């Protein structure tokens, strides 16, 4: 199209002010406010200008667009005033999917947020004395219960004093406390800064990990003002490597869980008790970034090798850091648990004030932890999803397939099959753990797998599935049973 023709088209466009004066637009302004309507008009006009500039509109199609201008402005307004953050169905089978919000919250957590956040609360107020309180007490007491009830107090591997909690004369110096910050990245930053600022931290070269692209141990270390002292090699590090690197600037021994990868083959890592013993001999704290930090024994669902928070504290690790919204199944948070006097140093660090979490997080975390205290594991959605058996999933999958098959208006293009597969935990936890599942595989006569999965994403609510080998795979492990009927309806109407 020539420039002259384009400028004729541009001249047909009304101005924002002209549109604002129209009676139907005036009525819209009364309902939705002047600035929101004016903004939508500007967006719609800018889009038309762009389309004219790109040569996508001729006189006829522009006239058509101008005829429907009011409706376009109204729908733009509707869109701009509706939510962008939406609920969806996670049919990927990845339980802790970082892009899909990691852990869905327990119903009790939502209830507790609702009850305490819409009104004032005793977040930092001691009801007994009427004086200022600390916000951590609400969850620290539950962590103490969880650790206290499970850590043995007598002799044993943890009888070296530091972590035996009950009834010992060292109680005040050996109790475990927990503090909460914004996420585990913040927990690592705060711990390193509090314990090792200006000094050296020894880490194995096999553990200089990157998690999710923006969390790299060397970067967090330099932000914390501690100096990274690398020891060993990528695949093999021995306790002697740590020992030789210790000098009078050393402040901390750090271990980092390899959350999202495995090193196999010719490998060696010091056993934890060797590192604990070295830390004791050298009078240095040992910290471990667990990443996921399970509070629930995953061995009971057949997942080995994912360290539990308790296992580590029992074994003598002085400080552990972990996420609230990974295996714990709560809100986004970073938890730091360990020897009370070390945690106290972190609490008094001004960074703690900058990284603290708000009342919503405390409420959701308190309710989630209470489920653990009561051993009500099925109340925590990620634990429930992990504990689902393949048979339970198969049963639901069969029901969905038969519901779709018996829908009179069902698409004749869509084919559903059941097959065996595997779900994963995700979120940087147990990278090699696979949970057996039963999948619904979808193929369509007219749509390829990517097109089909785009159609599912366009559903309300969006359905996110896996695409593998030219098929769309639906794993019900991560779909809430209450969502099954909705899923069946969406599948039946995929034309
Ligand atoms: C996930 C993870 C982190 C980051 O935790 P966030 O809560 O996402 O900040 C840090 N370290 C390890 C080992 C992890 O797995």
**What's the average pLDDT?**
90
Number of discrete domains: 3
Beta-strand residue fraction:
15-25%
CA(first)-CA(last) distance = 38 Å
CATH superfamily of the largest domain: Type I PLP-dependent aspartate aminotransferase-like (Major domain)
CATH fold naming of the largest domain: Aspartate Aminotransferase, domain 2
Helix/strand/pairing class, anyone?
alpha/beta
Which descriptor suits the 3D outline? globular
Radius of gyration: 28 Å
Query: What is the β-strand count?
Result: 17
What is bound: which ligands?
pyridoxal-5'-phosphate
In CATH, the architecture of the largest domain is 3-Layer(aba) Sandwich
Regions with pLDDT < 50 over 5+ consecutive residues?
A: 153-173
How many helical stretches?
21
Structure description:
The protein is of the alpha/beta class. The chain has helices at residues 3-12, 16-21, 23-32, 34-53, 59-67, 69-80, 107-117, 137-150, 171-174, 184-196, 217-223, 239-245, 272-282, 309-315, 340-347, 350-355, 359-373, 381-387, 390-405, 449-457, 484-492, and strands spanning 89-90, 125-126, 131-132, 176-181, 200-204, 210-211, 215-216, 227-231, 250-256, 286-291, 319-323, 334-339, 414-424, 434-444, 463-464, 466-468, 471-475. The protein has a seven-stranded mixed beta sheet with strand order 4-12-11-10-9-5-8, sandwiched between helices. A four-stranded antiparallel beta sheet has the order 13-14-17-16. Strands 1-15 form a two-stranded parallel sheet. Strand 16 and strand 17 form a beta hairpin. The longest helix is centred in the first third of the chain and has 20 residues, at 34-53. The two termini are 38 Å apart. It binds pyridoxal-5'-phosphate (PLP). Pyridoxal-5'-phosphate binds next to helix 10 and strand 10.
């Amino acid at each position: 199209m020539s420039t002259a023709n384009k400028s004729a088209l541009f001249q047909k466009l009304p101005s924002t002010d002209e549109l604002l004066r129209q009676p139907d637009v005036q009525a819209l302004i009364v309902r939705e406010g002047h600035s929101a309507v004016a903004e939508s008009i500007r967006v719609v006009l800018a889009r038309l200008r762009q389309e004219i500039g790109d040569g996508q509109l001729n006189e006829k199609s522009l006239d058509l667009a101008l005829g429907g201008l009011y409706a376009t402005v109204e729908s733009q307004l509707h869109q701009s005033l509706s939510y962008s953050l939406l609920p969806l169905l996670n049919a990927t089978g990845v339980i802790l999917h970082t892009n899909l919000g990691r852990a869905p919250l327990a119903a009790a957590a939502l209830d507790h947020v609702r009850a305490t956040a819409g009104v004032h609360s005793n977040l930092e107020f001691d009801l007994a004395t009427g004086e200022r309180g600390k916000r951590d007490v609400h969850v620290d007491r539950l962590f103490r219960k969880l650790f206290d009830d499970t850590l043995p107090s007598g002799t044993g591997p943890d009888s070296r004093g530091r972590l035996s909690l009950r009834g010992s004369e060292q109680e005040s110096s050996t109790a475990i406390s927990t503090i909460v910050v914004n996420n585990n990245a913040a927990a690592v930053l705060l711990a390193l800064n509090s314990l090792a600022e200006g000094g050296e931290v020894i880490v194995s070269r096999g553990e200089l990990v990157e998690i999710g692209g923006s969390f790299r141990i060397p970067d967090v270390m330099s932000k914390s003002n501690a100096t990274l002292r690398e020891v060993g090699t990528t695949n093999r590090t021995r306790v002697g490597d740590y020992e030789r690197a210790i000098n009078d600037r050393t402040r901390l021994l750090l271990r980092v869980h390899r959350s999202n990868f495995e090193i196999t083959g010719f490998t060696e890592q010091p056993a934890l008790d060797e590192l604990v013993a070295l830390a004791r001999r050298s009078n240095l704290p040992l910290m471990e970034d667990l990443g996921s930090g399970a509070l629930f024994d995953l061995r009971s669902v057949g997942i080995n090798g994912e360290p539990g928070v308790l296992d580590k504290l029992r074994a003598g690790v002085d400080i552990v850091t972990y996420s609230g919204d990974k295996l714990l199944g709560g809100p986004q948070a970073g938890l730091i648990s360990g020897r009370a006097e070390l945690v106290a140093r972190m609490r008094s660090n001004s960074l703690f004030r900058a990284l603290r979490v708000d009342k919503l997080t405390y409420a959701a975390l308190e309710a989630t932890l209470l489920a653990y205290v009561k051993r009500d594991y099925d109340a925590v959605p990620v634990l429930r999803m992990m504990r689902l058996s393949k048979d339970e999933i198969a049963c639901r999958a069969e029901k969905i397939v038969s519901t779709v098959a018996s829908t009179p208006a069902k698409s004749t293009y869509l084919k559903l099959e059941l097959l065996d597969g595997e779900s994963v935990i995700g979120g940087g936890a147990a990278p090699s753990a696979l949970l057996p599942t039963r999948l619904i595989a979808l193929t369509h006569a007219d749509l390829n797998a990517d097109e089909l999965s785009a159609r599912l994403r366009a559903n309300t609510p969006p359905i996110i599935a896996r695409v593998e080998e030219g098929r769309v795979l639906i794993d019900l492990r991560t779909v809430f049973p209450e969502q099954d009927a909705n899923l069946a309806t969406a599948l039946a109407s995929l034309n």
